[in-house]
Every structure is written in structure tokens, then in C-alpha cells.
Write a structure and sequence with these properties.
This protein has about 350 residues and is of the alpha/beta class. The chain has 2 domains: about 5-110 and about 295-335, Rossmann fold, CATH 3.40.50; about 110-285, Rossmann fold (3-Layer(aba) Sandwich), CATH 3.40.50. Helix content is about 35%, strand content about 15%. The protein has 14 helices and 11 strands. The chain has helices at about 15-20, 25-30, 45-50, 70-75, 95-100, 110-125, 130-135, 160-175, 185-190, 195-205, 225-230, 245-255, 295-310, 325-335, and strands at about 5-10, 35, 60, 80-85, 100-105, 155-160, 175-180, 205-210, 235, 260-265, 285. Strands 7-6-8-9-10-11 form a 6-stranded parallel beta sheet, with helices on both faces. Strands 2-1-3-4-5 form a 5-stranded parallel beta sheet. α2 runs parallel beside α13 (about 295-310) and α6 (about 110-125) crosses α8. The protein starts with 6 loop residues before the first strand and ends with a helix.
Length: about 350
């Protein structure tokens, strides 16, 4: 297919483009297709997104741009909706499939980046870095409890995907005892790290939640789970906000049962930490940016470029989640093959 025949709408606002896409990615994308940028300065969704992408066969969407049923309903020329992230929870895949639109996701290139943030949160919580800064900002001299040395601590990792494996490797490298609970991972491969969920809660100085968010894991960390955690332990969530009962977490922090918490995710918009934890010196907050390093973002940017290149070449891209239902793509390929 002539690259000029494929037209792509890039949903990223200027701010999102600077932080989550890249100029190098845009240049490479333009080698395979005509590119139309989002010039509205606003996050688009629904029918408005469809109308902004009129004439485009492909939408490359930042995670802020939901793929709603109304988008697919009003985009008769749309062939593919490509997410520049792993999370496709805001894309109505059933609606896309009903209209024959291919949906893709990027691969997880952020595992090490998120794991590094988790390690940084453990250091902060162990030594009271955020507490000290909060005291200084109030004009006070920080008075801190004795810090913890990580090489004398146990970290319990709940969920052993890419991030969990990187975090286990990093933690072990600095001398920490590492325990892992993941019922979906072969236990014999975990060896001495294997532990039950209760064991991790009872003995870990740091419990790091990296479980997959499913209906079964909703509020996995609830009042009972937090009460089982040893007094003075810390909780870190790098996965999804819905895994945590925030009332229970707040209560355990208020009671002093927990030393502190580190949250890169929560129940606020775009999975950011909830406002209820803002300003607490015992909580390390980051605005859902665990994977936002130059290297991690470029990985996912280039995934979308590779997917567009595959479409332009007349082949099914990697990362497709509903290939069997993408009849518009098949029609496009057949049309191009007869020209």
C-alpha cells in the first residue's frame, strides 16, 4: 500500500504528545502514513473523536482518549483503533468488533521503569524522605523515627508479571529477602520466594501490590488484609486503584498500624491516586507515571509505529486483540490488492 493512502489521526494533545509520544515517533509514523494531529487542545472521545478523525482509516489513541461505542458508530471509514498503551479498559472492544474495527494495544515496555519506582518508594518509606520534606515545607525541623535498612527487610510482591520479576531482581540485588505470591505463576519456578498471600501480609516489611485487576481481585487489599500486615509495615500499589479498599487503607494509616504507603495509582481519573491521600507525609504519591521514562514511552510509541507500518504493508499488526472481527481491515486489504 502507498503510505500516502493510509491516513492516521493522532489523538494526543500537545502536552500528551510531549510527555507520552515523541517527535522521533512522529517522523517515523509519517514514513508509513499521512498523519493528522489533534489540534483542539482537548482530549477527544465519543462522536467528537470520530468527527475529528473523518477521512482517517486509523486512530492512534493515548490512554486518555476512550474508544466509546459512539466513536465506532460514527466513524464509517475507521479500520483500526490503536492504543499507545497496554491498558485497553476504556475501549469498547465489543462495539469496535461489531463495526469491524481492529483494536490493538502496545506491549509492556515499562516493567523495569515501574519496578525502579517501586524500589524508590521503598527507600523513601524506609528513610522518611517525604516526611522530612513535608516538615521542612511547614518550616519545621524534621523529627524522624529510626530508618530501616532495606537489606534487613522483607519485600512481599503480590503478582509476578514483568514488573514483579524486575522488582524481585532489584530487591534481591540489594540484599532484601523476597517473597512472591501469584497463584497463576508456576510455584516450582518461584522456589524459596513462593509464599501464600497471608504469609506475605504477616511477615513483609513492604507489601507491593502488582496483581492483575479483575472482578476477583477487586478490593484485594481490604480491611482484613491490612489488619494482617505486621505493625510498622508499608504498602505500595503500582497496579490498579480498584485493588485497594481506600477507606481501609486510610484507617490503617490514621491508626498508625502502617508505617506508610506509596501510591502511583488510585481511584481518581486516569487511575491517579485519590485526593484523600494528598498532603499526608506518610504517603508517597506519584500521578500514575511509573512507566513514564524516556525509554519506556519510546517503546510504546514505536509499537504504534510498527502497527501502522504493518497495516500499510497489508498485514495484521502485533498487539491485535480482535483480529477475527476486523472485517473492515480485510476489506481494505482486498481493495488494495486489486488496485
Amino acid at each position: 500500500m502507498d503510505h500516502k493512502a493510509l491516513k492516521v489521526f493522532l489523538t494526543y494533545t500537545d502536552d500528551e504528545f510531549a510527555n507520552y509520544y515523541s517527535q522521533a515517533g512522529l517522523v517515523e509514523l509519517q514514513r508509513h502514513a499521512q498523519v493528522v494531529r489533534n489540534s483542539t487542545g482537548r482530549v477527544l472521545e465519543g462522536r467528537e473523536l470520530a468527527e475529528a478523525a473523518v477521512g482517517c482509516q486509523v486512530i492512534v489513541a493515548h490512554r486518555s482518549a476512550a474508544g466509546l461505542a459512539s466513536t465506532f458508530e460514527h466513524a464509517p471509514e475507521l479500520v483500526a483503533f490503536l492504543r499507545g498503551a497496554v491498558d485497553i479498559s476504556t475501549i469498547d472492544v465489543s462495539a469496535a468488533s461489531m463495526h469491524g474495527v481492529l483494536v490493538t494495544q502496545a506491549s509492556a515496555g515499562f516493567g523495569r521503569a515501574v519496578a525502579e519506582m517501586g524500589l524508590g518508594m521503598m527507600i523513601d518509606l524506609a528513610r522518611g524522605i517525604s516526611r522530612a520534606r513535608a516538615a521542612y515545607e511547614r518550616g519545621e525541623e524534621p523529627v524522624l523515627a529510626k530508618g530501616l535498612q532495606l537489606n534487613a527487610c522483607t519485600v512481599g510482591i503480590v503478582g509476578y508479571g514483568r514488573i514483579g520479576r524486575h522488582l524481585a531482581e532489584m530487591s534481591a540485588a540489594i540484599g532484601m529477602r523476597v517473597l512472591v505470591h501469584d497463584p497463576h505463576f508456576p510455584q516450582e519456578q518461584l522456589g524459596a520466594m513462593a509464599a501464600t498471600f497471608d504469609e506475605i501480609l504477616r511477615v513483609s516489611d513492604f507489601v507491593v501490590c502488582l496483581a492483575v485487576a479483575t472482578p476477583e481481585t477487586a478490593n484485594l487489599m481490604n480491611a482484613q488484609a491490612f489488619s494482617i500486615m505486621r505493625p510498622g509495615a508499608s504498602f505500595i500499589n503500582l497496579s490498579r486503584g480498584e485493588l485497594v479498599d481506600e477507606d481501609a487503607l486510610e484507617a490503617m494509616l490514621d491508626a498508625g498500624h502502617l508505617r506508610g504507603a506509596g501510591l502511583d495509582v488510585g481511584r481518581a481519573k486516569d487511575q491517579k491516586p485519590s485526593s484523600r491521600f494528598v498532603g499526608r507525609p506518610d504517603v508517597v504519591l506519584m500521578p500514575h507515571v511509573g512507566g513514564m521514562t524516556v525509554q519506556a514511552r519510546e517503546h510504546q510509541t514505536m509499537d504504534t509505529v510498527r502497527q501502522v507500518a504493518a497495516l500499510a504493508a497489508g498485514s495484521m499488526p502485533e498487539g491485535a486483540v480482535n483480529a477475527a472481527a476486523a472485517y473492515r481491515l480485510k476489506q481494505l486489504f482486498e481493495q488494495e490488492s486489486t488496485q
